[in-house]
Amino acid sequence: DSTDDHTLLWALNHIRLGIPELIVQVRHHRHTRVYAFFLTATYESLLRGADELGLRKPVKAEFGGGTRGFSCEEDFIYENIDNELGFFSSQERQSIIRYWLENLRAKQGESLHNIHFLEGQPIIPELAARGVIQQLFPLHEQRILKRLMKSWVQAVCEAQPLDDICDYFGVKIAMYFAWLGFYTSAMVYPAVFGSILYTFTDRDQTSQDISCVVFAIFNVIWATLFLEEWKRRGAEFAYKWGTLDTPAESLEEPRPQFRGTKRISPVTSAEEFYYPPWKRLLFQSLVSLPVCLACLILVFLLMLGCFQLQELVLSIQELPRVLRFLPKIILAVIVTACDEIYKKVALWLNDMG
Asked: Which residues form the Anoctamin transmembrane domain (predicted)?
């Protein structure tokens, strides 16, 4: 609510000029009293974004089938290319727009109030880190959510709509629920076999020992078959969803916090940001390693102090019983506090390194 007009116009102009493919609407919410930018894009812009992102799409059978990275120059070879509403899934449209936003970079000397950007620094993540932008998130589509609610959440003893989950939430979420469903189904076998074995096992020690050995052998065989079957099932899903022959790193957008100097890549001949390896090694050796060691030593000393305090408390018989739990409470508070502090230290080291 306290955002001034200069900040709003500055951010709006940078998005419109830096990402001309986006359509931006500015609204002020009466109840939350905050400003919101509603972002979308035309179908033609999404096609160009898919080309830039290298999004993999199914190819028509007459052109070889399978999937390949999208190319605007050969858009006619892709299946369903004429269907503006169906060619991109909800998750794919969101990924393209998010990719544009996170790679909106600042020019040399740009600043907003007390925020001074480095050349090539991502603008949106920096504004989010400084609190200028509160949240960055996609809006739900109620029509699809209602359909998923009926076919997935409220369904009983029915197969999960994995293709619909993939279209809406993306491949990673769909693959997780595919594995979760497969694992849950596979657990039926050791549960049934274990129950039968327990029922027919006598109470004497010899029978129980034999049952344990039999159940252990069964679990070894079950685990092996489970792993091999999931490899086949996971490869099937990956092929169907177009990620089978996609390197893992290509599924991730470039880290927007990465900073470096612009150069022409000697491999792809495309413009990229480059950070010399010797600088990274120097920072890791002189900063990251000492900081990590200091954090480990601090945790060890604090934990050792709590143990010493515990022994001292237990040695004093006159203390009330409640005070005997004091060292454990102090240790729990220390662990919680260190977790928050070290999380910030880890993020800082990751961004700087």
From this structure: 165-352
Query: What does the buried/exposed string (b/e) look like for 314-337 if buried means 16 or more CB atoms within 10 Å of the residue's CB?
Result: eeeeeeeeeeeeebeeebeebeee
Whose CA is closest to 240, among 174, 305, 185, 286? 174
Handedness of CA 15, 16, 19, 23 (dihedral sign): positive
Q: In whole angstroms, what is the distance from residue 257 CA to residue 254 CA?
A: 9
Q: What angle do CA 295, 353, 286 make, to 5 degrees?
A: 60
Please identify which residue in the block is written with the tokens 């999404």: 46
Q: Where are the alpha helices (DSSP H) in 103-161?
A: 123-129, 142-148
Each residue's pLDDT tens digit, 311-342:
888 888 777 877 888 888 888 899 899 989 99
Question: Minimal CA–CA distance to 3: which of 116, 127, 101?
Answer: 127
The alpha-carbon radius of gyration of the chain (Å, integer) is: 28
Q: Contact 214/197 with Cβ under 8 angstroms?
A: yes
Ranges of each domain in the chain = 5-130, 142-244, 276-352
Predicted confidence (pLDDT) per residue in 248-304, tens digit: 554 454 555 666 676 777 876 666 667 788 888 888 889 999 999 999 999 899 989
- What does the alpha-carbon distance between residue 319 and residue 324 come to, in Å, rounded to a whole number? 7
> What values do phi and psi take at 37, rounded to 5?
-100, 120
Question: d(Cα 351, Cα 25) in Å, to the nearest integer?
Answer: 32
Percent share of the chain, pLDDT over 70: 93
- Measured at the CA of 141, the angle between CA 48 and CA 157, to 5 degrees, comes to 115
> Tens digits of per-residue pLDDT, 96-152?
999 899 888 888 888 888 888 877 788 888 888 888 888 888 888 898 899 999 999
pTM above 0.85, yes or no: no
Do residues 168 and 148 touch, judged by C-beta distance below 8 A?
yes
